[in-house]
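Subject: for your reference before the review

Hello V.,

The reviewers asked for a structural picture of the protein, and I figured it would be easier to keep everything in one thread rather than splitting it across files. Below is the amino acid sequence we used in the manuscript, unchanged from the supplementary table.
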Amino acid sequence: MPCLIATCLPGDDCTRYPSTRATPAVDALKFDLAYRPPFDWTALCLFLGRRAIGGVETVDGDTYYRALRLDYQGATYAGWISATPSPTEPVLTLWISASLAPALQSVLKRAKHVFDLSCDPETVAAVLGDLATRHPGLRLPGAWDGFELLARAILGQQVTVQAARTFATRLAQIFGEPLAGAPTGLTVTFPSATRMTEVRPEEIQALGVVGSRARALVGAAQAIASKEIVLEPGSDPKRTLVALRRLHGVGDWTAQYVAMRALSWPDAFPATDHGVLRAMDEKDPRRARARAASWAPWRSYAVMHLWQMLEGRCKKERMRMTVYSYIDSPLGRVLLTSDGDSLTGLHLEGQKHEPQPDNDWTRDDALLLFAATATQLAEYFAGTRSSFDLPVAPMGTPFQQEVWRLLQEIPYGARISYGDIAREMGRPQAARAVGAAVGRNPVSIIVPCHRVVGSDGSLTGYAGGLERKTTLLELERRHTQAGSPQTDPPQTGS
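And here is what came back from the structure prediction:
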């Protein structure tokens, strides 16, 4: 292969280097990008990892991987990057595929915004005060592409982070461009705004997205593709906020969130965000906004700290709380468990590993989450729902969590094998371990382990029993043949 010539930006150490363990056998370029410590890379990876679009980005240990497709000086380039912090120096090591070499300036500029490498954490902490003491060096994650971030924000309206991630993954798999020769887990690039202007809202609805959001997404694509709105760092935030709010289906929360990340604006504040209000112990967004004035001009960082604070608080609450209830279904009585915020279990009566209510558990038949679960299950069994918009938080090992995440990406009516999942994880020899993790899935049906079959298509074991597995697969087959189930829940706001 001919030698690659890379132009390094001032302050960056650039090296041409062949592939490493985590990269394919092709040339790649290595850059060491400096930052000001402290740098909470773990928190940044967790934030990006929870929102990672399947096939587009992934986190493995302390390394972040991303598939990229970008326009640069009249041409389009596709490839991948990986980022890992140095264990000894305050630098982030970035590997960039050779295919992106002509667009290095753009890739490096975007990377610095995504990982917030220009941040001066001491300056931010001096304004945020006590709020910043628990997590020094917390960064503001940027965006690789403004339209992608806006699309994800629209898909995330009134649903959980996991549900938004599932919808974004489906969008990428159907409308994105395949990517070959990338590290394991990177298979596709996210569709551009121009590509999405060619898509009808009905095609997006077929992925399980609510109709109003599907139309909002196409409208957003048209605004970005026509340059009516430019979502890049450096764009005027106030003008951009006004322009975003003019879009159908975009309210203040979406506009503030997009400005915060796509524009890397340090002073955005989504005052209506549920997590922000909970962390501040406020119910009135106006009061929250007034209190946040003291954090200007670093309110975006304050939001990151508030979310981090809430995550820690919820984690402690989950460790000491189990709420449960029973509902009826066509498959028999179902035990539901929750940590108060998310569904932690959906167990069919008599299935393997079914827990029994403990003295420390609290029965709550009036919990809204359980009512929503009962409603969506009824719709599923009636053939009018193909996906679930419920917060789920199954407890398990990191390996089990990854398997369960991939289960949620299996389309309605589809079947895949244990080996398929193992290969998707980059562990082709781990089919047995995958099978064990599938068998321990605590959230049946919603995390659709019934869609996993043997390599020959046979219906292998199912914790709820093969008869129930057959019933679920036949239900989905019947309704898939009859036409895609409708999944639009009633709208309650923008």
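For the response letter, the relevant points are probably these. The radius of gyration is 23 Å. The chain has a mean pLDDT of 88.

Happy to draft the paragraph if you're swamped.

O.
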